């Protein structure tokens, strides 16, 4: 299966598509990733979708990076004054160029049109803020969200998983793509998770 790597960014991260920044990050990722099939998840804003393809087309290492562009659901909701057909068309153009798409889902209501959700290859749940695991009621609410997302038959990634107890809850919900301090503390380097944690997860999943 695919191995997934991600850039770790603050919640209010603003992607900056200057050539110098991209040229610095992409070759570094290609050279340091532990596996050749590792993918780079790159956060972008909605207003950047109009010119990011031409920017990445000029950057060395972009094709080898297996880039997945990450959009935020709330930004798409804010820009939903645009015609639905325009949004769908823009996302299709990005996919046709060979890039994958991921969507950070911050709202349990799924307020976008189903046609938009169906275009994404990954859904990302950041387990903080509105989606923070805690009480049984909160866990049940997130499970309801997961059930809705599973209808689209896309991969679901859980970020900000901070405890082993959260890992157990997610695995019980059949979610196995996750990251956070439960596996390894933040680092600018591409580090492998703690083997002891991986051993526990293998026991839980039976793999």
Shape: globular
Number of helices: 8
Structural class: alpha/beta
Distance between the termini: 13 Å
Biggest sheet strand order reads: 1-2-3-4-5-6-7
In which range does the helix fraction lie? 25-40%
Number of strands: 7
Sheet-strand content, in percent, reads 15-25%
Helix and strand run: EHEHEHHEHEHEHEH
* Rg, Cα atoms, Å: 17 Å
Largest sheet: 7 strands, parallel
Determine the mean pLDDT: 76
Uncertain spans, ≥5 residues at pLDDT below 50? 1-20
How would you describe the overall organization of this protein?
With 207 residues, this protein is of the alpha/beta class. Helices cover 38% and strands 16% of the residues. The chain has 8 helices and 7 strands. The chain has helices at residues 19-32, 52-57, 73-78, 84-96, 114-117, 136-150, 164-172, 195-205, and strands at residues 3-6, 38-43, 67-72, 100-104, 122-126, 155-159, 177-178. Strand 6, helix 7 and strand 7 form a beta-alpha-beta unit. It is globular, with a radius of gyration of 17 Å.
List the helices and strands and how they pair.
Blueprint: E1 3-6, H1 19-32, E2 38-43, H2 52-57, E3 67-72, H3 73-78, H4 84-96, E4 100-104, H5 114-117, E5 122-126, H6 136-150, E6 155-159, H7 164-172, E7 177-178, H8 195-205
Helix pairs in contact: 7-8
């Amino acid at each position: 299966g695919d191995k997934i790597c991600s850039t770790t960014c603050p919640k209010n991260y603003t992607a900056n598509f200057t050539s110098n920044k991209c040229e610095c990050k992409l070759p570094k990722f290609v050279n340091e990733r532990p596996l050749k099939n590792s993918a780079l998840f790159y956060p972008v804003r909605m207003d950047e979708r109009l010119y990011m393809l031409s920017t990445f087309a000029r950057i060395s290492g972009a094709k080898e990076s297996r880039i997945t562009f990450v959009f935020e659901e709330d930004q798409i909701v804010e820009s939903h004054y645009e015609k639905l057909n325009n949004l769908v068309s823009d996302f299709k153009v990005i996919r046709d160029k060979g890039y994958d798409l991921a969507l950070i889902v911050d709202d349990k209501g799924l307020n976008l049109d189903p046609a938009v959700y169906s275009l994404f290859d990954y859904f990302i749940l950041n387990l903080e803020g509105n989606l923070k695991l805690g009480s049984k009621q909160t866990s049940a609410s997130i499970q309801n969200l997961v059930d809705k997302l599973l209808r689209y038959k896309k991969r679901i990634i859980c970020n900000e998983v901070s405890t082993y107890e959260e890992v157990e809850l997610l695995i019980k919900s059949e979610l196995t793509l996750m990251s956070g301090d439960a596996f390894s503390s933040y680092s600018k380097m591409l580090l492998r998770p703690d083997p002891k944690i991986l051993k526990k997860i293998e026991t839980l999943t039976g793999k």
